[in-house]
Amino acid sequence: MVSVRAILDRKGSEVFSIDVAESVLDAARLMNTRGIGGVVVTRDGEMVGIFTERDVLRRVVAEQLDPAATVLESVMTTPVVSCESNTGLDECMQTMSNRRVRHLPVVDGGQLAGILTSGDIVAHQVREQQDTIEHLSNYIHDPR
Ligand code: AMP
Q1: pTM of the entire predicted model
Q2: Closest atom, ligand 1, to C-alpha of 58
C-alpha cells in the first residue's frame, strides 16, 4: 500500500503557515509568493485552521470584505481534517473526495509533518503510470 510518506519523501515536509491574527492580504501574498493554493493557520505555533483560495472567493470576495482589514481567524476553516504520514493514499483520496478539500495537512504525534494536496496525488499517479508503461514497453521489446 502506498502511503503519504512516499509523497512527502519526494516533496519534503515544509508547510507554509500564517498566524490567525494576520490578514487575508498577508495570506494571499504568501500564497502567491510560494505558488500554493492554501496555508495552514496557526495560533502560538499550533495549527488551528486552514485558509485556501476557495475561501478568498467565497468568504472574502463574494462578501465584499476588505482583504487588508480581515483577519484570518474570521474567514479560515476549522477544525482541520488531517492525515498521518502512514495513512494510505487511497484513504486520503477518499477523504479529499468526501470532504471536498484539496489540502490535507499531515500530522504525526501532534506535529505538522507536511501537507498533501490533490496535485501531489495526481503527480504521483502520473509517475506510477509512466513507470508501468516503461516496464511494459521494455517487456514487449525484450520479454526475456
Ligand atoms: P480546497 O479545495 O482545499 O481549496 O478547500 C475547499 C474548502 O475546504 C475551503 O473552505 C477550505 O478552507 C476547506 N479545507 C481545505 N482543506 C481542508 C482541511 N484539510 N480541513 C478542513 N477544511 C479544509
Answers
A1: 0.92
A2: 10
